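In the design runs reported in the main text, the only information available to the sequence generator was the tokenized backbone. The following block is the verbatim input for one such run; it is reproduced so that readers can re-run the procedure and compare outputs position by position.
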């Protein structure tokens, strides 16, 4: 039986924690950040969790993580 292929675009954007939570990078970090306040810039540095229902679909595309 062949192995299941991992969806590479999903693998690069999401990480799965030990407790099976799906984490993603906060959007809007690449450029145009000089106009943001300091608290907004700090908040964008941390990753955010995906909802459980969306996470279930993402985990299906990442079979070996």
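Verbatim output:
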């Amino acid at each position: 039986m062949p192995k299941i292929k991992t969806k590479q675009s999903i693998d690069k954007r999401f990480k799965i924690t030990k407790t099976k939570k799906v984490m993603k990078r906060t959007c809007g970090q690449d450029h145009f950040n000089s106009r943001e306040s300091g608290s907004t810039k700090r908040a964008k540095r941390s990753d955010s969790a995906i909802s459980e229902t969306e996470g279930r679909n993402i985990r299906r595309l990442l079979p070996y993580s």
